[in-house]
Amino acid sequence: PLARERLRSLLAAQEGVDVVAEAGNGEQALHACGALQPDLVLLDIAMPGLDGLEAARHLASFEPRPAVVFCTAYDAHALSAFEAAAIDYLMKP
């Protein structure tokens, strides 16, 4: 929740960026994406229930397909993230 709050505040400060949803787990993220069709989705690797990698695999089949960027503390999953069609992989401090 704290990381999501920080990302939300950073994004809200950017002109032309609208944060349309926030999700605490992969299932919620997929549901929100299906309903709202965002251009970009930020995911973490470790998410309750459906993890971020599995959520990204599902998002790859969406039409239109949102861009997926991982924001995570797990450096070992970058290759898997790109295999799941992520466009970037950012490491949290």
What would you say this structure looks like, in words?
The chain has about 90 residues and is of the alpha/beta class. The chain has a single domain, classed as Rossmann fold (3-Layer(aba) Sandwich), CATH 3.40.50. Helices cover about 40% and strands about 15% of the residues. It has 4 helices and 3 strands. A 3-stranded parallel sheet has the order 1-2-3. Helix 2 packs parallel to helix 3. The two termini are about 15 Å apart. The model has no long low-confidence stretch (mean pLDDT about 95).
Based on the model shown, name its key terms:
single chain, 93 residues, alpha/beta, Rossmann fold, three-stranded parallel β-sheet, globular
SSE diagram, text form:
Blueprint lengths: L1 H11 L13 H11 L3 E4 L8 H8 L7 E6 L5 H6 L4 E4 L2
Parallel strand pairs: 1-2, 2-3
Low-pLDDT sequence parts: none
Tell me the strand order in the biggest sheet: 1-2-3
What is the string of helix and strand elements? HHEHEHE
CATH level-1 class:
Alpha Beta
Mean pLDDT: 94
CATH superfamily: Response regulator
Beta-strand content bin: 15-25%
By secondary-structure content and strand pairing, the structural class works out as: alpha/beta
Number of strands: 3
Radius of gyration: 12 Å
CATH architecture: 3-Layer(aba) Sandwich
Overall helicity: 25-40%
How many discrete domains? 1
Task: Sum this structure up briefly.
By secondary structure, the protein is α/β, with parallel strands linked by helices. It contains four helices and three strands. The protein has a single domain, classed as Response regulator (Rossmann fold).
